[in-house]
């Protein structure tokens, strides 16, 4: 899962490099990112967020207690209903786009050309929702069946679709080439998973039965899960609405910074939470609360060991990373500064973002979607408040920082309520693990800072070549310091990860 996600993140970075090279930061790219956020929001709402959270526990229970026939019937029923629901949403989204876009793109109202471009782009990209929602359901089924390879590699095809579309079609259709790539990328992400699904025994039958017990249970869970997912996605959308009132490039800068944050998030917590969710659901189905508690505690310990150093490393290398990855073609030095400022704000909440994924999956495995919903709503209100407070003094960086602060608040509340539900999920040992990770990360940050002083003495201009060398040396030094510190402090998670890497297959 991590290998597939790693390759997906690498190709995702290449995708952003291609977009940055050809388009830079402009009114067109701001329009594209805002338009794409709408079908992407509904994707997370209807599929990857709410549906997966409601479907996986029920499907896991069916597989464990009711047999293959009933389990596949449930899959066909949900597949058909999802096809019907998302198809209807796509048609409504395309038809009513000219009416709702002005309320989302508030900052574009003074520029009719940019506003109209946003309308056309969102109309073109709505079919993406249909393909990616079905792809998310297929991914959930495969994960429950213990297959993670094709779902992990499926996003790679989405990235390649945008890259190829941008390169081939930019001279003919400009920014619309990205929208075309989105549509074909969503379709590929669905169809590349089908061979694995068929091998697991899937045979599609058009079944729509609202009275089916499994469907009723899924939709009983999905309603509060939808509300919980929408608060999270609305937080992203609200941030972009705030950013639309800032200078040109602010939306794109936040988008690029978040994509860089998604690299360690995808490599560690997304992969871990995806794999652990069916496991937690199986433990909860047989009432093994101790197993749930231990799995959640160990998951958070591992994330603290991986994400806290990652956040420090990104902060120390943010300007050089953005410059090396994106500062080519139309992407200017000013664009680099905007992105690196936003990246700093997001890095402060990186560990909390990962922990929230594990904590939320724990509640969902217990078939409790109401508690995360309440926490998400409170976190959304906190995010909006911080947006108002921080946008004036810090501009786009304030919006990124507001996101981090609200996620930290989210993590704290989820931890508090899960502890009340399960009892201790690590307690003192979890706190010690986090403190050790912080200490090792501080030593790593100090080492990278001293290395930067040396490189500045050798080459004050810090050319592209020297930035690449500096990043490579910093990564090697950082990993070395973390490994040595972990060995000396006897960090348990370090030993577990090393053992898992080199254990016999």
How would you characterize this protein structure?
The protein is an all-alpha fold and 505 residues long. Helix content is 86%, strand content 0%. It contains 18 helices and no strands. The protein has helices spanning 2-23, 27-65, 68-95, 97-104, 112-125, 127-144, 149-173, 176-191, 194-199, 213-243, 250-285, 289-326, 333-347, 350-365, 370-422, 427-458, 464-488, 492-502. The longest helix is centred in the last third of the chain and has 53 residues, at 370-422. It starts with a helix and ends with a helix. The model has no long low-confidence stretch (mean pLDDT 84).
In sequence order, what are the helices and strands, one letter per element? Answer: HHHHHHHHHHHHHHHHHH
CA(first)-CA(last) distance: 16 Å
Number of strands: 0
Largest sheet features: none
What best-fitting shape do the alpha-carbon axes yield?
A: globular
Overall mean pLDDT score?
84
Low-confidence stretches: none
Number of helices: 18
Strand content: under 5%
Q: What is the SS-derived class?
A: mainly alpha
Rg for CA atoms:
23 Å
